[in-house]
Amino acid sequence: MKRTIVLALMICLGLASTGLAKTWTAEELSQYSQAEIEAMGDDNIHLQIAYWEWKKAVADERIADLEPQVLPLRAQYAEIQARIAELTAEINALRAEINRLRNAGVTHLILDGESLWKIASYHYHYGDGSQWPVIYERNRDTISDPNLIYAGHTLWVPVPLLNSYTVIEGDFLGKIAGYDVVYGDRGMWPQLYEANRDIISDPNLIYPGQVLDVNRSAVFGGSR
């Protein structure tokens, strides 16, 4: 609610001995522009003081009028800033996850006779040869023609490390441990055995269909 300022400023004009003084009302002061007041220089000092006191009073009243509106906005601003911080953290986490997934994978040493289709078809990779473009895209920096790959070169296969493995015909613990998605090291078969003692009584006897836990603790050298 706008209020009318009634201001009477008593400014001494150096006539204190006579008790005389000059009074300006808000209406009188409002007749002057800021430029006019500033142009007075050293003249009419008391008028200039009265003018700026009046301007300050107007500003203070305006601030008081706006304060009830400003306080909720400040609270909203704080909430928005907090939400922005949360969203920024979530975005950074997503970017990190995207980067992790983009760079995730295992290495595969190309053997004679292999093709991207064959590598993708391995059950411990995709089990589906038609997924070969995934491998190609991941290795575009080293493969110019997907039909031309060479034995001895190493590829990145973008598959995650396994937390469990289903045994197939012909598997044994050493072979499974040697898969890149498991440990990439046949010598780590004891880690598989220890993690699955509840279903494996003899490490030399495992059966197709058994689901083995792939332990990635540091007991046998840790995860890759």
Count of runs of 4 or more consecutive helical residues? 7
Low-confidence stretches: 1-20, 218-224
CATH-defined superfamily of the largest domain: LysM domain
What is the CATH topology assignment of the largest domain?
Membrane-bound Lytic Murein Transglycosylase D, Chain A
Globally, the shape reads elongated
The whole-angstrom Rg is: 41 Å
| Helical content class | 40-55%
Features:
two-stranded antiparallel ribbon, 7 helices, 9% strand, 224 residues, single chain, mainly alpha
Task: Report what the structure shows.
With 224 residues, the protein is mainly alpha-helical. The chain is 42% helix and 9% strand. It has a two-stranded antiparallel ribbon with strand order 1-2. It has a two-stranded antiparallel sheet with strand order 3-4.
Task: Give a quick precis of the structure.
This protein has 224 residues and is mainly α.
List the helices and strands and how they pair.
Blueprint (H helix, E strand, L loop, with lengths): L8 E3 L10 E3 L1 H4 L4 H5 L6 H59 L2 E4 L6 H6 L10 H7 L15 E4 L6 E3 L6 H6 L10 H7 L15 E3 L11
Antiparallel strand pairs: 1-2, 3-4, 5-6
